[in-house]
Amino acid sequence: MNARSVSDALDRLAPPQPFAGDWADVLTRAGLDAVAPSPPAWRNRRWVLAAAIVGVIVVAVTAAFTFGLPILDFGKAQKAPPESRVVKNFAVLDQGAPPGMATDVIPNETRKVATFGNATLWVAPTKQGGFCTDLGGEGGCDRLGTAPLNVSWAIERSGLSPESERSFSGVPVVDQVSGYVNARWASALEIRFQDGDAIRPQVVWVSKPIEAGFFLQSIPAAHRRAGHLISEIVALDANGTVVTSDSLGRNRSASPPADAIVDQAKQLAAIETASGQVVLRTAPTRYEGRCAWLEFAGEAIPATPCLSKGYVNQAALALAVHTFGGRSILFGECGYNAVEFVHEDGGSRTVGCSDGIVFTQLTPADETGQVRALDHEGRPLPGSTIPIKRLSQSP
Amino acid sequence: MNTSGAPLEAFEAVYRSRAADFLRFALARTSDPERARDAVQEGFARAIRKRTGFRGEGSIEAWVARCVINAAHDLNQAASLPASEVDGVRAEPASNLEEGSPIREALQRLPQRQRDALFLRYYLDFDYRAIAEALGVEVGTVSATLHAARQSLANALQEVPR
Questions:
Q1: Are B17 and A15 in contact (CB under 8 A)?
Q2: Residue A105 CA, distance from chain mean position
Q3: Residue A295 structural domain
Q4: DSSP code per residue over A235-277
Q5: A309 with A175, same domain?
Q6: 3 state DSSP class of A92
Q7: How many domains, chain A?
Q8: A220 Cβ neighbours under 8 A, 6+ residues apart
Q9: Distance, in angstroms, between B93 CA and closest chain A CA?
Q10: What are the φ/ψ torsions at residue A11 (nearest 5 degrees)?
C-alpha cells in the first residue's frame, strides 16, 4: 500500500477535464424547446396565436361575480382523473425534494380551471393554503398562497439558446405572459408598455381554497417593437392602487422597493461612516409581506427581497458585504437567532438577527474570518460557515 | 416577484459555472465519460423540469446534484452494470481506476451514501447543508458519514485521515 492521500485517489478517480457544456441540449431534454417561438418550435407560435384568437374559456362558471368577472367555484370544477398526466406529475413533485422545498400539493384535488387556446390549466391546492398549477406541462407553486403576483415571461427567440433571445437596448421582446395574481389583495391586472399604453388581460378568478386569478395574454406585434415593449405588469387593488409589480428590468433602482409602503417605513438601525449614515429600513407591503433596504447617500440598496406573508423569516442566510464611506458593512437575510464571526486568532463576535435581518459593521478581525448562523440555543448551524471575503461586493 | 420555483436563468448560471465540476462528480459515479456527460445533461434537465418544487430555501446546486445522482443511477442501471450489495445498500460501480487497485476496492466497499457524500464534498465543494439537501438526509448525519468514508479510504491507503 502506498501513501497517496484520499485527495490524490479521488483526483485519479475523476480527473479534471474540460467540458464546454451544451445548454441548448439541456433545454431540449427539459422539454423547453417547445416554448421557443423559433423556426424549429413554430408549433408553440401557433399555440400562442390560437390563444390570442380563441381567448379564455372558463370552466364551470358559477353565478357569483366579482370585479366584473366571473368566479369559478373550484369545488365544482372538473376533477382530473387519478391516472392522468397532471395528477401523476403533481404526485411526484415532492419526491426527493430537499428539506424546505416540498410543495405539499394535494394531487387528488387537481381540477380544471380554464383552457387557454388548446391548453388546459390545471390547479391543485396545497396543504398550507396555496396551490400548484399546470399549463401544458409547465407550471409552478405558491405553497402558502400568499404570493401577490407571479408572471412567466415568454421571450421571442431566433433559436433555442438563451443568447438568441430578441431584445432592444437590453429589454427583452416578450410575446406572451402568463401567471396568477392573488385575489386576497388584488382585483385587476394591468400590462404596461414603454410607450404609455396599457392593457388589462382577462383574468380567470377562482374561489377558495385557491383564491387567485389566472391569466395568459399574447402580446400584440405593435408591442414587440423598440420603444413599445412591456415595461411592467402590475396587480391593482379595488381602489386602483398598485399592490405589486413585476418586470424583466435588471437595473438597480436608487429608490426603495416599489412594493414597500414607504410612509410606514421604520428605521431599524444605522451605522455612521465618514460619508454619512447607512440606515437600515423596513416597510410592510400591501400583501402583508415586508421589504427591507439600506439607504446611503440618497440611494437605496435592497437588503433582502420583498417577501410574501409566511415566507418571511424562514430559515435562510443570504448575506452581502458592501463598503460605505470606507466602512465594511455586512447585511442581509438571516432566518436564525444570530450570526457569529469566527476570527483567525480564535476569537469571535456574535450579532443578533432582528426581524429576519442582520446588519453590522465589520471589524478588521471579522473581515479576515468567517461568519456562521447560530440557532436559538446559540449552537452553530452545521454547514453555514462562509468566509467573509466571499461575501464582499463592489459598492 | 417569483415564488414558483427558481428561474431558468439560475439553473443556467449554475450550469455555466459548475458543469465541469458536476462532470467530475458524475464521472466518479458512473466510471464512464460518456455516461457521465449524459448524467450531467439529463440531471440539469430533470432539475429544470421539476424546478417548480424549488422555492429557494435551499441550494440550487444541491437540487441539481440530487437530479444528477438519480440520472447517473438510471444510466448505470440501463447500462446493466454489475452491482453489489454492501451493508444492505445497493452499490454501483464507482471507480475508473485500474482493476484491483486499493482505492477502487475501498470505494466499492463504501455504502452508496458515504460515497455520494464524499464525492459531493470533494468534486463539488458542497458544505454539509448542501450535502444533506442533495442526499435527503439530516445535516447532523453528514459529518459522521464523511468521516466514516474518509476513514475507510484512509485505512485502505494506510493514510492518517485529515
A1: no
A2: 19
A3: 262-391
A4: EE-TTS-EEEEE-S--PPPSSPPTTB-GGG-EEEEEEEETTEE
A5: no
A6: coil
A7: 2
A8: none
A9: 12
A10: -65, -40
User: Cβ atoms within 10 A of the Cβ of B148, count?
Assistant: 16
ipTM reported for the complex surpasses 0.95: no
Q: Say if B122 is an interface residue toward chain A (CB within 8 Å).
A: yes
Nearest in space to A23 (alpha carbons), one of A166, A161, A137, A155? A161
Q: How far apart are CA A13 and CA B31, in angstroms?
A: 8
Determine contact, residues B148/B49, Cβ cutoff 8 Å: no
The shortest CB-CB distance from A142 to any of B3, B53, B150 is to: B3
Backbone angles phi and psi of A356, in degrees to 5: 80, 15
The low-confidence residues of chain B, meaning pLDDT below 70, are 1-6, 52-58, 80-103, 157-162
- What number of H helices and E strands is found in chain A? 5, 28
Instruction: Supply A13's cell numbers.
Output: 478517480
Give the cell for residue B137.
438526509
What nine digits make up the cell of A239?
A: 381602489
Contact A122, A112 (CB under 8 A): yes
Superfamily of domain B8-156: PhyR, sigma-like (SL) domain (1.20.140.160)
Cell of A348: 469571535
Interface with B, mutate which of A8, A26, A142, A290 (most B CBs under 10 A):
A26
A353, amino acid identity: C
Mean pLDDT by 10 residues, chain A (395 residues): 60 76 80 39 27 43 45 91 88 70 88 86 94 83 90 76 71 89 94 92 92 92 91 92 83 78 93 93 93 90 82 71 90 86 94 89 94 87 79 56
